[in-house]
Amino acid sequence: MSSSASAPGKVILLGEHAVVYGKPAVAIAIDREVRTTVEDSDVLMLNGSTIDLEYHPHIEHILSKYGDMKVSITTDTNLPPSSGLGSSAAFSSSLICAMRMRKNLKFDVMEIAKESFETEYAVQGRASPIDTYTASLGNGIVLNCPDGLGEPIAEVTKNGNAWKVSRIKVPDMTLVVGYTGIKSNTGPIVERVRRFMDKNTFAREVVDEIGNITEEGIRAMTRNDLSKLGDIMLKDHKLLSILGTSCNELNKLVDAAMKYSYGAKLTGSGGGGSMIALTDEPMKVAEAIILHGGLPFVVRTNPKGVGEV
Ligand code: PMV
To answer: If we measure between CA atoms, which residue out of 39, 29, 30, 28 comes closest to residue 5?
Structure first.
């Protein structure tokens, strides 16, 4: 028996880091994905080799939940790993979906999103639900959405944290992702911002300001005002840089892309990983990114979420 599912990656359009402190953040699914196939096997295998679960905590978490440890998992993706583009959440969502198909459970996207978040949280300890809900539901997801802007779909609580998850309508937009080639490591960067916030009123004001402009940006996006949205993205990048989450490589790519873009910024935790540019001239932006040492790819908005393939 074989079951296959896919789930999209994501970019955070606005609000990363500030979302850890209860501010809104908006993520959109992108048309790059992880595909996962689960088949019968006498021993646990990943991409044709036997594995030690100690080094694959996501797989261990998911397979134990379904009490089915002897399977062959094959996974394939066009998302670079550890690039701030949600490959880990997309893998969890697609594996959960494939396992549920294998167990003849009905397709339940909210259940997949919840289990995927539980997996990421168990493995990483601190994840907000932004990656896992975007990988599962596709399109646009807002955490802590200001009232009246999105459609609330879930309340997620974990260890004293609570997040309101809403869907948001995303216009058709062209984004160019620029991967720095430097792996980003979310946990330590989130921790560094926390230390800065603990010591510094000024850092807390920056986080408040990110919250305010994110709300403004969500409003601009819903009325398809790309020029305004782009201005806010660049401002967000500057505020994130003040928080210490950017790096020279990201700044170089943002600068280079700005010549042909409405706006550009780092996406995800930063410190490496990727930036995004909102543009009508994707080829010119892609060229500029290559010239400045990045790996570009053009993405379109509004792919569907997790599902059978
Ligand atoms: O780099 P990513 O995709 O793991 O995004 C991290 C986003 C943060 O706001 C920095 C942390 C979080 O869990 O929301």
So the answer is: 39
Token pair, residue 16, equals 């990363």
Inter-residue contact 176 to 257 (CB < 8 Å): yes
Residues 51-76 pLDDT 10s: 999 999 999 999 999 999 999 999 99
Q: State pLDDT tens for residues 114-127.
A: 999 999 999 987 77
The tokens of 194 are what?
A: 């926390």
Instruction: Classify 306 as helix, strand or coil.
Output: coil
Q: Which residues line ligand 1 (CB under 6 A)?
A: 16-17, 19-20, 84, 86, 127-128, 130-131, 184, 186, 190, 268-269, 273
pTM above 0.85, yes or no: yes
Burial label, 131 (beta-carbon count in 10 A; 0-12, 13-18, 19+): buried
Using DSSP's 3-state secondary structure scheme, residue 186 falls into helix
Using CA of residue 16, residue 20, residue 26, residue 31, what is the dihedral sign?
positive
- Give, for 52, the enclosing helix (H) or strand (E): none
